[in-house]
Design brief:
By secondary structure, the protein is of the alpha+beta class. The chain has 15 helices and 16 strands. It is elongated, with a radius of gyration of 27 Å.
């Protein structure tokens, strides 16, 4: 048979991988709910007029999967859909705190940690005090990453700080190109940044000042002081300082680093900008969580100007860091019901139903195979318990409970078996 065609940049998941993914999402969602964030639903498709409204995602418009015959496209992220949603449903009480977990699509060049179809877990706060909202949006994703057991560093900057710096050194042309180059510091280094800035037309003095700005070192307090001095204003890092001060009260486990080279979302972020790196090194230089403040996004779809801040966890990247493909959990079932003879199936079914009703996940044999092969199947899925029924158990209204790890068996009532498996 010829090779089956399969799209680039997408993937299948084995049951153990899918279970690990579901459990990660459940942990994230529980944290989001614990902070009072509300779920909403927006469709996978949006009108291209919305997705491309006033270059809402800037130069990355080219990454949209377009369904041109319908003038629609697959959603690029969850934020544009939220901006459209709040413009159409403007009766929501403010501040409006929402979370969204689901698939998004980007026509990117596939590589490790960069798929074309991937899941994001977003939180957004529209309205409210900017500094308080910044801190809570960052804190909730940090708490979610804490729940997943990740070791991470939050890299924090502000577009306002960058804009003030650019104005201070007299750069008013090619600012977006300059910022995009600054954002590449980690990937291409100081020399690479210098070459790109030179090709844009900057002089050596301007390049030196930019390299000094993005290359500040020391403690966070020392970095903030250095940036304020370069900008010539003690208020240059006010948003950064205020956000960090509140963040310190949330008890997050990750590290926080002031980093003026972080200039993501150039087309729509207006304030705080965040990128999160995994400290284990398994994620390379790819961000596992990012976001920022966007005070003008909603106004692109309506006359109202509703400031907002959002953060997004890249679920697929987090799973790679966690090594989800090595997960040994292959089923949700805690018990497997096996039966000796075909005439025992009806009783086995009634036993399985009673155990399920107690809240325990149960797999019931559905194949014509002997008891040995049934137990081998349960063992291959690493199901902790097997319930065996035959003529004797059916007559006595009992079951034989086998601990699959120790091999120990006991004849018990169904209720006693349920109690044993619930420990």
């Amino acid at each position: 048979m010829s090779e089956i065609p399969f799209p680039r940049g997408v993937r299948d998941l084995m049951p153990n991988e899918a279970i690990a993914r579901n459990e990660a999402i459940e942990k994230i969602e529980q944290v989001y709910r614990s902070f009072g964030f509300l779920p909403i639903y927006t469709p996978y498709m949006e009108s291209l007029d919305v997705l491309k409204a006033k270059d809402v995602i800037g130069e990355e418009n080219k990454l949209i999967f377009e369904l041109k015959e319908q003038n629609n496209g697959l959603r690029y992220d969850h934020t544009v859909g939220l901006a459209r949603y709040i413009s159409m449903h403007n009766s929501m009480p403010l501040p409006f705190k929402r979370y969204a977990i689901g698939m998004v699509w980007r026509m990117d060049e596939p590589q490790r940690m960069r798929l074309r179809e991937f899941a994001q877990a977003d939180v957004d706060i529209l309205g409210g005090d900017p500094i308080k909202a910044n801190a809570e949006a960052i804190a909730v994703v940090c708490k979610a990453m804490d729940a997943l057991g990740l070791d991470y560093t939050i890299r924090l900057n502000s577009r306002r700080t960058v804009d003030m710096f650019m104005e201070k050194i007299g750069l008013t042309k090619h600012t977006q190109k300059i910022m995009r180059t600054m954002d590449k510091t980690d990937k291409i280094g100081k020399d690479g940044v210098s070459k790109e800035l030179e090709s844009i037309g900057l002089g050596s003095d301007e390049i030196d000042q930019i390299n000094a700005f993005v290359g500040v070192s020391g403690t966070n307090d020392e970095r903030i002081k250095a940036i304020n001095d370069m900008v010539g204003s003690q208020e240059a890092c006010a948003e950064i300082s205020g956000t960090m001060e509140l963040l310190s009260q949330y008890g997050i486990k990750g590290k926080i680093k002031v980093d003026p080279s972080i200039v993501r979302g150039i087309d729509y972020y207006t304030g705080i900008v965040v990128e999160t790196l995994d400290n284990s090194g398994k994620g390379g230089t790819s961000s596992i969580c990012s976001g920022g403040r966007y005070d003008n996004l909603v106004s692109r779809f309506s006359e109202s100007k509703l400031p907002g801040v959002g953060m997004s966890i890249g679920i697929d990247r987090v799973l790679e860091v966690l090594g989800f493909e090595k997960s040994e959990r292959r089923t949700y079932a805690r018990a497997f019901v096996a039966y000796i003879k075909e005439q025992n199936y009806s009783y086995a079914l009634s036993v399985a139903n009673r155990i399920r009703d107690s809240g325990i996940c149960v797999d019931l044999n559905q194949a014509s195979r002997n008891i040995s092969n049934q137990l081998s199947y349960a063992s291959s899925l690493k199901i902790p318990y097997s319930i065996i029924v035959g003529d004797t158990e059916q007559k006595n209204k009992t079951v034989k409970l086998r601990d699959m790890e120790s091999g120990e068996e006991k004849e018990l009532s169904v209720e006693e078996a349920i109690k044993q498996m619930s420990k």
